[in-house]
Design goal:
Elements (H helix, E strand, L loop, with lengths): L12 H12 L5 H11 L34
Helix pairs in contact: 1-2
Length: about 70
């Protein structure tokens, strides 16, 4: 609890595990730290994934002959 005191603590369960191992020389797994964080209700909410919309080309073209439209992938 000392590690997570304060306003916006930057620790997730993985960073918290590393700190517990380094500072307190504990043999503890990240899964155990995750379970303890859930019980104590100190987990931060996960980031929401941004929806990435695919880029689409305009389809309002009429092609009557060959060599009128060229597209490339970059």
């Amino acid at each position: 609890m000392e590690l997570i005191e304060g306003e916006g603590f930057p620790y997730g369960y993985r960073k918290l595990t590393v700190c517990l191992r380094r500072e307190y020389q504990l043999q503890i797994n990240k899964k155990k730290v995750y379970r303890l964080c859930k019980e104590l209700a100190i987990l931060r909410p996960q980031r929401q994934k941004r929806v990435v919309y695919p880029r689409e080309l305009a389809r309002n073209r009429t092609i009557t002959d060959s060599n009128q439209l060229f597209e490339t992938d970059i």
